Amino acid sequence: MNNPAPQHRFIRVVWPAAVTLLAVTGIAQMPVFKRYYIADIPGLAWTADPMTTHLLHYLGAVVLLAAGGWMTAVFLLQQRSRWQLTTAGVWRLGLLLGLAATGYLRVVKNLPEFYWPPVTTMIIDWSHLGLAALLGLASLAFRMTGHGAWLAPRR
User: Fold this and answer.
1) Which of 3, 23, 96, 120 is 20 to 30 A from 151 (CA-CA)?
2) How far is Cα 16 from Cα 72, in angstroms, rounded to an integer?
3) Rounded to whole angstroms, how far apart are CA atoms 19 and 5?
4) What are 151's strand-pairing partners?
């Protein structure tokens, strides 16, 4: 894919932007930006507002899920016969699916008519945080070792 089609160039902008938004707003939901005075930097006061970061996190998730769904459809309908997932792609896809599942459970947990015991909530929260950290570390490791591609030509 040396000369990607326009839609692939679009994804190369949207995907990292959504991931960055999710990373920043995910960390901001743990009040570290206010605690360590990062929110006092001009232009970053919004990072200390839990509702703003919560809504932006949902927005980033919607964008990432839509982009992922679109890429999955393109792959399955047009590219599956020519391309296959790499080992790095399989690992990251698994981590993304785990993140989506735990994110969905967190959305359900936030509904007013839904209740989970505190231990279940903690397990879901820590799983979501752990999967996000693993995805970041795995992506960085794959990129640094030259295995950053999601797809490779079929043999």
Assistant:
1) 23
2) 17
3) 22
4) 85
Nearest residue to 88 via CA among 128, 145, 126: 145
Measured distance CA(41)–CA(109) in Å, rounded: 32
Bridge-partner residues for 84, per DSSP?
152
124 close to 106: Cβ distance less than 8 angstroms: yes
> At residue 41, what is the residue type?
I
pTM greater than 0.70 (yes/no): yes
Please list the pLDDT of the chain residue by residue as tens digits (155 residues): 454 555 678 888 999 999 999 999 999 998 899 999 999 999 999 999 999 999 999 999 999 999 999 999 988 998 888 889 999 999 999 999 999 999 999 999 989 998 999 999 999 999 999 999 999 999 999 999 999 888 889 88
Give me the phi and psi of 11, to 5 degrees please. -65, -35
DSSP at 150: S
Q: Which of 32, 12, 7, 2 is nearest to 129 (CA)?
A: 32
